[in-house]
Amino acid sequence: MAELAALDKTARQMKTLSQALDSGRLGPVRRLVNTLTPAEIGSLLEALPPTKRLMLWGLVDSEDDGEVLVHCNEEVRESLLQDMDDEEIVAAAESLDLDDLADLFEDLPDTVTENVLKSLDRTDRERLEQALSYPEDSAGRLLNPDIITVRPDVTIDVVLRYLRLRGEMPDHTDHFYVVSRRNQYLGRVAVTRVLTSQLDTPINELIDDSQAPIVVTAEAETVAKSFADHDWISAPVVDANNVLLGRITIDDMVDIIRAQADHNVMSMAGLDEEEDLFAPVRRATRKRALWLGINLLTAFLASFVIGRFEIALEQVVALAILMPVVASMGGIAGTQTLTLIVRGMALGQVSASNAMALLSKEMMVGGFNGVIWAIVVGASAGLWFGDLRLALVIAAAIAINLLAAAASGVMIPLLLRRLDIDPALAGGVVLTTVTDCIGFLAFLGLGTAFLL
Amino acid sequence: MAELAALDKTARQMKTLSQALDSGRLGPVRRLVNTLTPAEIGSLLEALPPTKRLMLWGLVDSEDDGEVLVHCNEEVRESLLQDMDDEEIVAAAESLDLDDLADLFEDLPDTVTENVLKSLDRTDRERLEQALSYPEDSAGRLLNPDIITVRPDVTIDVVLRYLRLRGEMPDHTDHFYVVSRRNQYLGRVAVTRVLTSQLDTPINELIDDSQAPIVVTAEAETVAKSFADHDWISAPVVDANNVLLGRITIDDMVDIIRAQADHNVMSMAGLDEEEDLFAPVRRATRKRALWLGINLLTAFLASFVIGRFEIALEQVVALAILMPVVASMGGIAGTQTLTLIVRGMALGQVSASNAMALLSKEMMVGGFNGVIWAIVVGASAGLWFGDLRLALVIAAAIAINLLAAAASGVMIPLLLRRLDIDPALAGGVVLTTVTDCIGFLAFLGLGTAFLL
């Protein structure tokens, strides 16, 4: 329950806020809200029903508007933008760092994008246009061009004097980047090294070139994984010619890692991770309907299988009563294997090279559980209906379905990935279709053979 | 598919490795492995079947052993430790930072823990014992005591000279911590501020005390959320008396955020996030059996409901053929709502204060989808069996079940949480039990009333 305790704070804030909003005492709300970080405000806005959401949005300090928009999911962001006039949007956009602005920019109404661009000075405009020229979810969208570069031939002393002159540094600066005259990346020097080295040390004696720079076209997830694997705090980003463009910092990676995890949880239920908790009923209905429609086809497929055994069902009603047990045991067992495999895929731990080993392990687990539950279910059914043959039939069906479930749980996600279909999204539907059909087929088929 | 692309590297490495391991050419394997980070090696070990896993483990540079163990999930770690003799384990433990050692320590066999403690110098031993005195998943387990503290009355110049004398700093040092004579936390000074300030500036003019320190007993998830909300890179940790104990850095938070996400995905299938991809068949069987047993009870409950309608099933076989459709549509719709709510809970966005609003929104969505799919299913069933009354009965049952599904999807997780049961773990089972029973009850009940 740690997770829940962890979020009491948000829950409490939400309670206080919605009560205050209900009571219409907006003063306290404004005071409370503006003690929160943009990320916290974004989360609160996502948690509030539409009317309260807009009330609260109206109370957020306008200088925070941009940051908050960046921290909301796309659907909520959209609803907030609709509530702002062009001037407000431009002002909000102006307040953002370039990487955040690049993130927000494409969601902005066309009426304002022009003005936003106009509001930027030439360098920033060029930088933004460059950022937007990179594909979404690429390093180019995440990089922050605010970095401190130094030449290899200067000494610590020079650097220190330059910094004092400069008077400030970008947030989270943990390295200085060493570049050639043509601004090509040579390596970096940890701020800590600069502090602990003698003043007359030339930079090139401190250069750390062990960490290969990130290429601007690299995929965001790849970058996030590198950060996690190497415990990076920041990393330099270069273009194809090794020209230094900026850096990526870990705080942006945290957002990506969260979104990625979110994607897995949500897509297993056919939802997308940008889904708004309070999405307009119409939109939510449309989105869910699609998923229900897909499932309906598979359900009818199962019914069709059952339909092949009318006679058996008419003569032995116990088959109708017990068939859901066979199907659901298969579905549960298969989902366990499927989840393990899909998680493994997301971690890059499942591939052709260990698929066979996984298959045989899961088949063995499925086999043993098949035997265990065949006995339990067989015995219970036998006692319930006082029919030994029925007991044997359902026992066999359970064993068969748990084996099939294990096999499908391993093979379906691998197959889907080969077909370039997201296993997290489609795996469950396909799997339960298989376990339903095989379950009904085995149970009713054996029933027809031995009970009529 | 970004996610998959992101992991090609791991997949490729795994392919190369397992082929090399098969061929027995261990030289290249050793060379490849030791170019990887401990996190990458850990991930590879997790991905390999037991025999290959131990072969690879034997090839890892012994100086990396400790770090790699820290980066494996508990089950894999256990299997690797069993393969090491006490000397190796002690050596591995010695090589670790205190926070990592604290993380590993309790998994070590009792035979070695003594020697590990002996191998530490007095300060480190005391620090470790202190760390272990804090509850697991608390800030105390994550804190790293390696920090640089300064007094408020010294000047930048003094600090700089001290640092050059010191010659090195702990990794990821982005702040100096200002403490009183009694080592109480007063605030911190960004390394960057030190670099950009004039030499004669006294530290107390640069103190930043805006960020409240983390209390050592705070829960890891709470801390991780704060890091994400505030874009922290590091944070000071104090005890109840505000005495500075050390700091927590964001790289450890990334692991926690990942584990938390993992927990949600895995527990929805009744798996735990430490599950080893290649867990021994016996252990895996036992763990899965429990989950299947719980599900069996719910499945029999559904069968019991069906059993109440023997007569109807005997007389109208179409009811037996179509009843899975009603149940599965309810299950899918309910799971969508459930997932949305559970995700919202994990983000702290769902609580009593917006539960009603969520309930009414989801009921409306469920209502609309109920009407849509009642018509579709009713029409299809009517055409299939050429029976208008059957069409009306199943249409009504679908509508009822989708409404029930929406209500359960919102209320079950809230109820479970009140009972202190993890909604991610138990939500699905309870929900499908409800949707199955209501689905069968509605369909077969109406069938009995209007079709006999």
Automatic annotation (TrEMBL), chains A, B:
Record protein name field: Magnesium transporter MgtE
Keywords: CBS domain, Cell membrane, Magnesium, Membrane, Metal-binding, Transmembrane, Transmembrane helix, Transport
SMART domains for the chain: MgtE_N
CDD domains according to UniProt: CBS_pair_Mg_transporter
Subcellular compartments: Cell membrane; Membrane
Protein task: Acts as a magnesium transporter.
GO annotations of cellular component type: plasma membrane
Assembly, per entry: Homodimer.
Transmembrane annotation, as ranges: 289-309, 315-342, 363-385, 391-416, 428-451
Family label: Belongs to the SLC41A transporter family.
Keyword Secreted included in the entry's annotation: no
Domain CBS as annotated: residue spans: 143-206
Gene3D superfamilies per UniProt: CBS-domain, MgtE N-terminal domain-like, SLC41 divalent cation transporters, integral membrane domain
GO molecular function list: magnesium ion transmembrane transporter activity; metal ion binding
Keyword Cell membrane: yes
Bilayer topology term: Multi-pass membrane protein
Domain of life: Bacteria
